[in-house]
Amino acid sequence: MSPPRVSRSWLARTATAAAAGIAMWAAFPPRNWWFLAVLGLGLLFAALFVGAPRARTGAWVGFVFGLAFFVPLLPWIGVYVGPLPWLALAAILAGYLALFGAIATVTMRLPVPPVWFTVSWVLVEALRSAFPFGGFPWGRTAFSQVDGPLLPLASVLGAPGLSAGVALFGSSVAWLLVVLVRAYRRTSTGTTWTPIPDSEGPVLPERSSGVVRIATTAVAIALLAPIAAIAATPASLDRNIATTSARIGAVQGNVPRLGLDFNAQRRAVLDNHVRTTMAYGGAIDSGQTEQPDFVLWPENASDISPLDNADAAAEITAASEAVDAPILVGTLIHNPDGRPTNSVLVWDGARGPVARYDKHIVQPFGEYLPWRPFFRLFSSYADMAGDFRPGTGPTVVDVPGRSGTVTVGVATCWEVAFDRAARQSVREGAQMLFVPTNNATFGRTEMTYQQLAMSQVRAVEHGRAVVVAATSGVSAVIEPDGSISRQSGVFTSDVLTGRLPLHDDMTLATRLGPWPEVLAIIAAVAGLLFALRSRTRFSLRPRRVAARATGDTKELDGIGD
After folding, report:
1. Is 394:426 a contact under the CB 8 Å cutoff?
2. Can you name the residues that pair with 358 across neighbouring β-strands?
3. 124-173: per-residue pLDDT in tens?
4. 471/493 Cα distance (integer angstroms)
5. The whole model's pTM is what?
6. More confident residue, 473 or 436
7. Is the pLDDT of residue 202 over 50?
8. Annotated active-site positions, please?
9. In angstroms, rounded to a whole number, what is the distance separating the alpha carbons of residues 333 and 339?
10. What is the three-class DSSP state of 550?
11. What average pLDDT is seen over the chain?
């Protein structure tokens, strides 16, 4: 006995959702197959649109997509703490995609479904990037596009706009194909169209042609939008427009060992960075490389605070004198309230610390542990989490360079995933961005490459050069167009040098700030409320009537599964 049609439809949707999630994962670094994100969201659109499934089916489709995407994306979470945190986080994030599936299924019954698919996608990405515990933006669609032609959208509408561009492109192409296939089937079967009163919403040939035109227009807009973005903000993509520049050296000193306890040898980590910087100073003295305006060390380069430890201060001073330039030092500072801050000190060999930045967005389950007594029940690693205090004040530091003071925006490690971090720095006058990071606790996983892509998006979003200094790799020098001009390996010592353009202008994305995302969220919520209030009868009834008029039994069977 053959299985019921609904069961076959459910299995087909499930398989399509799983394939879509895997395609989305493959779009992310280190593969960078950006086009698979477009394909993945196109498949997800088809799974949620064809046959007009119920909201609960849409939720299931979204959940399957989320699992197929996040499970292979995030294994670095559990590389040293076991699979439970990794799989639990993947399941929670898949829950957000289940919410998306339910919302999109309902709102896509409104006219021009790709628009509602897109704004619903932006809504749910915003939700999981903010809640709970400050959110988890990892895996945002925008971060899969560093090698793709849609990347310039970030300079106009920010990272949320880039995510929206991918969603609109994929869903519009899928919608156009669905419409064309339906039109072909009706034509090939020689269907005779029976007039139906307009109040019932007939799907007449003229209306079908109109839908094709709308779908084609949506695809064209999605393709032309990046070109318009380049025209709107040429400075953000031209590395030669800046009138001033600074020569930098980014030091990757490496760590003595991998794992969660890499920093048990804090002095060895500091010594590694001092030794590598001293060698850099020797190369400068011998004329092998040019004198830098300043040098950048990564996060945790000196977890022995030079403000409290005279030996650490002396080592950093000696390194600064060796290169005859200030060093931006990633360190931990112990505060009077007993809670440390993850800080960057601008250390001048002659004057000591001249500026300081304390990390504003501290990482849950790493730098602090919410609900500590509760999570202690599930993992023996819970007590290894810190109790860091979030920083306040400016997100920029003024660095005295050889050619004048340079205003550097700092987004330490985890912070680069959040839109507000880099945006605040640029609005406060940052001429370039600095991302000190420590990825040693994640071993040789894909995490470091996924994070590097975030810095590339930020470069384009704000039209700024970005320097990523990593304790153990990957360190990189990123141009304002998002391209990587220099890059280190992992678990090796290295020094990356280069002259970076310094920009004072702002891209449209920086000026607009969060407003494009806010408007998309408002549109998604309004569309959902309108669709729920209308109980979707205006959408489903015309399709039932038209299907009965044309004798399309497959269409009738597919509606509402």
Report:
1. no
2. 343
3. 999 999 998 889 999 999 999 999 999 999 999 999 999 999 999 999 99
4. 9
5. 0.88
6. 436
7. no
8. 299, 359, 413
9. 9
10. helix
11. 86
Assess whether pLDDT exceeds 80 at residue 301: yes
Between 525 and 546, name the one with better pLDDT. Answer: 525
Are 397 and 357 in contact, with CB atoms under 8 Å apart? yes
| Cβ-defined contacts of 37-40 (< 8 Å, 24+) | 37/141, 37/144, 37/145, 37/148, 37/166, 37/170, 38/166, 38/169, 38/170, 38/173, 39/170, 40/65, 40/69, 40/170
Beta bridge partners of 355: 346
- The CA distance from 280 to 269, in Å, is 17
Closest by alpha carbon to 164, among 226, 256, 234? 226
Say whether 349 sits in a helix, a strand or coil: coil
Per the structure block, which two tokens stand in for 134? Answer: 């400050």
Position 193: which residue type? W
78, 381 contact by CB (below 8 A)? no
Residue 393: name the closest of 349, 360, 351 by CA: 360
Please identify which residue in the block is written with the tokens 């509402």.
560
Count how many residues are written for the chain. 561
Point out the least confidently predicted range of 193-207, 371-385, 485-499. 193-207
C-alpha–C-alpha distance, residues 60 and 9, integer Å: 13
State both tokens at 413. Answer: 């490690």
Instruction: Calculate the dihedral angle through the C-alpha atoms of 448, 454, 456, 461, rounding to the nearest 10 degrees.
Output: -170
Burial of 58 by CB count in 10 Å (0-12 exposed, 13-18 middle, 19+ buried)? buried
CA dihedral 487, 493, 499, 505 (to 10 degrees): 70
